[in-house]
Amino acid sequence: MTEIKIDTEYITLGQFLKVSEVIQSGGMAKWFLSEYEVFVNGEQDQRRGRKLRTGDRIQIESFGSFTIV
Length: 69
Fold this sequence. Notes:
The chain is α+β, with helices and mostly antiparallel strands. The protein has one domain (about 1-69): Structural Genomics Hypothetical 15.5 Kd Protein In mrcA-pckA Intergenic Region, Chain A (Roll), CATH 3.10.290.10. It contains 2 helices and 7 strands; from the N terminus they run ββααβββββ. The strands form 2 sheets. The protein has a 5-stranded mixed sheet, with no helix packed on it. It is globular and about 25 Å long. The termini are close together.
């Protein structure tokens, strides 16, 4: 499990995808979320604006598991 450290209260799912290097640019987030199943705390979510906070767990098949710290 990869840990992604944030210095703010939250980051959005779109920002997370870029910070975790799953996508190369923020503009790819909408396309990526429509093509891949992303699970946040065990529930599928496709919203780029979904707020991720410390302790949230993200799973993306073929990319791995991540935890926000």
